[in-house]
Amino acid sequence: MLTKIRDFLELIKFEHTIFALPFAYVGMFLAAGGWPTWRQFAWITVAMAAARTLAMGVNRIADRALDARNPRTANRPLVTGRITLSTAWAGTAVAGLVLGIAAWQLGPLPLMLLPGALLFLVGYAFTKRFTWLSHFILGFTDGLAPMGAWVAVRGSLFTADDVPAWVLVGVVTLWIGGFDLIYACQDVEADRAAGLHAIPAQFGIPVALALSSVCHVGTLMLLIALGQTLALGWPYWLALAVIAGLLIYEHSLVRPNDLSRVNVAFFNINSYISVTLFAGVLGALLT
Description:
Mean pLDDT: 92
Structural class: mainly alpha
Low-confidence stretches: none
CATH class: Mainly Alpha
Number of strands: 0
CATH architecture: Orthogonal Bundle
CATH topology: Tetracycline Repressor, domain 2
Number of domains: 1
Largest sheet: none
Oligomer: single chain
């Protein structure tokens, strides 16, 4: 059993939850105007980890045939047989159950909004089969993390005071969508052969990298608007300057004719960005 759990966590790259959690915490702390209750903190953490596990589990299951034909992904555990399809389904189902329990514990509105969140968490895996907007649908799906945390603390989403939650959705949509464009550049030939609608495969790598840059400029502009709207203090602006530098460095690592450092740009830099933003927001709220 422990081996199956370990293999499932490897299948979904559970350690990459670090991408989503800091943004969820940003939404949580901004909604609370400081430190939330420990109960909220705990259940929001559980909900975000379960949501990502559910989404990644569905994605791996749905893409197993595609992964088998792509040299980059052909050694994934579900393809090689190191983890069985039944184990993948079991882990994914447990994650969905835990997410439902967490939404129930967080209040009536999170529970009411859960079906909409599930639509994106489950449906994203299939979008690249029919639309090149899949990169931004992924970004929006990840953007539900800070929005969900905001709703869990405030119990509202559609008032004038809830505008920051929507700004955060825009921030994450453009940030995630932008670096997913970079990541998808590795799979141009495989995506074209499979008839998938990724932007690099549809329009070419130079267009994808240019659009990624535009997305990340938009990310910074929305972060500036967020800081001004909430009158956040100097730690936030210092963090924003660091994030701008990290984004510039990220884009310097990748060229249309040189994708050898995509993994550094994708995994390392984006982890630093999410943690830096969280630290900046927390610092601004506590000073």
